Amino acid sequence: MADKKKTMAVIKSQENITKDIFSMWLEFEKESNVVENAIPGQFISMYSSDGSRLLPRPISICEIDKNSGSLRVVYRVVGKGTDEFSKMKKGEKIPVVGPLGNGFSLKGGKAVLIGGGIGIPPMLELAKTLNSKENVSVVLGYRDNDLFLKNEFEPYANVYVSTEDGSVGTKGNVIDAIKENVLEADVIYSCGPIPMLRGVKAYAQEKNIEAQISMEEKMACGIGACLGCVCKSKEIDDHSKVHNKRICKDGPIFNAEDIEI
Questions:
Q1: pTM of the model
Q2: Mean pLDDT by 10-residue block, N- to C-terminus, for the chain (261 residues)?
Q3: Given the DSSP bridges, would you call strands 170-171 and 244-246 parallel, antiparallel or unpaired?
């Protein structure tokens, strides 16, 4: 069970890796168990120091370093909260709650990992955990030739790229890249924008492959209390008594067959 208490994380390093995307390493005290409990696919909620911004920013975990008690987040500046984080320096502290969410359920056999846009960072720790060039392929979807994080996947898996403008790899989307490279899978893990996840779900159904998808959604509380981040589900939710799942609490990872997108 994730610890829901706020803990102070210390910034070990931060860099602007491309355009409006930043990479930050956060160090935690061992007693907090944040790093010890973290698994691929989970997220943390980071709090602003500005009192007018009460709600935290949920950010996916990119890497987990249990030896140093550190987590890495790679995030895009999209508003005042993330802009504040991007201006912070080494040694400064951020209140954090986590790890939150359920993480990926690891399976055997051949795996294809699919990441699109800012859904790429959370796939890195999963690739590191699976760590098999024989059985693991990673398909990364970009708009253009700004291939952030691509090189970091290469030690752990076979990496394929799709770009919307065709500047690198397959011209088109991640499904086009899977088809062009004739990638086979027993399980698909994916994180990215809804149109991409919709395509992944359709492809997995067509090929009769299990697909686990990470839903990116704006969240409020991050712990399942406010119902601010629901998605439609086949089953009736025990909490809300309707066909909803709370992405922060029941997810963010879902079996693609269990939700409507």
A1: 0.88
A2: 76 96 96 94 92 81 97 95 95 95 94 96 97 96 96 97 96 97 97 94 96 71 46 57 54 83 79
A3: unpaired
